[in-house]
Every structure is written in structure tokens, then in C-alpha cells.
Amino acid sequence: QVQLVESGGGLVHPGGSLRLSCVTSGFTFSGNSMRWYRQAPGKERELVAHISSDGVFTNYADSVKGRFTISRDNAKSTVYLQMNSLKREDTAVYLCNVPSYAPGYWGQGTQVTVSS
Predict the structure, then answer these.
(1) Which of 21, 68, 91, 108 could join 64 in a cystine, given CB atoms 3.0 to 4.6 angstroms apart?
(2) Burial (Cβ within 10 Å: 0-12, 13-18, ≥19) of residue 2
(3) Contact of 60 with 49, CB cutoff 8 Å
(4) What's the pLDDT tens digit per position in 60-79?
(5) Residue 93: pLDDT band by 50, 70, 90 thresholds?
(6) Are 93 and 39 a contacting pair, CB within 8 Å?
(7) What's the rounded Cα separation, in Å, for the pair 47 and 37?
(8) CA–CA dist 104, 45 (Å, integer)
(9) What pLDDT score does 61 carry?
């Protein structure tokens, strides 16, 4: 059974940083690419970042390019999202996903609120 547990969110001022974590279990983490999505109130879920199974290939939404960095630790079955220079429009619930193995499965997510 796939489990995705996101953490690391919180309240941060504009320009601040947060590091999100997604601890996973129930599938072969090292064999799967991973993604971070976000969903703001009243908006559709948005793909934020993608990382290949070996961590070599990454891709980002234009809105976060140069500010966010996705990474993974296959030994810990964990994917991370380092978020720098946060903006108010980054406020959302952030969720990780396993696009090939369990595309329809979502964890609880972690709330990120950027506000002064």
C-alpha cells in the first residue's frame, strides 16, 4: 500500500525559505520518478516539480524555476522540495505524487502560507 507523508510546511514571510519532505513507502522508491504538486484555494492542482528515479533529470513549472529545487534520497525513500525566495502566490497545499506507479494517490499534503 502506497503511503506518502508530506511535512515541512508552515507560515513564512515573503522572501523566506522552507524545505518540504515527502516520506514514502509501499513501492520501490528508487525505481520511480516523483513529483511535487500544489493546490491553492479555488485553483486547480498545479505540477510544481518533477525528478527522475535516479535524480539526474529535473523539471520545474515556470513560476518556480530558479527558486525551487527538487531532490531525493533513495536510501531514505524521501523526496524534498527546497523553496527559496517565497512569494505570496506560492501559498498552497503541497503534495507529492508517484506519477507512474500511483498517479491517482495523494497524501494529506502540507500547508505553505506566505504572508507578512
Answers:
(1) 68
(2) middle
(3) yes
(4) 999 999 999 999 999 999 99
(5) very high
(6) yes
(7) 4
(8) 13
(9) 98
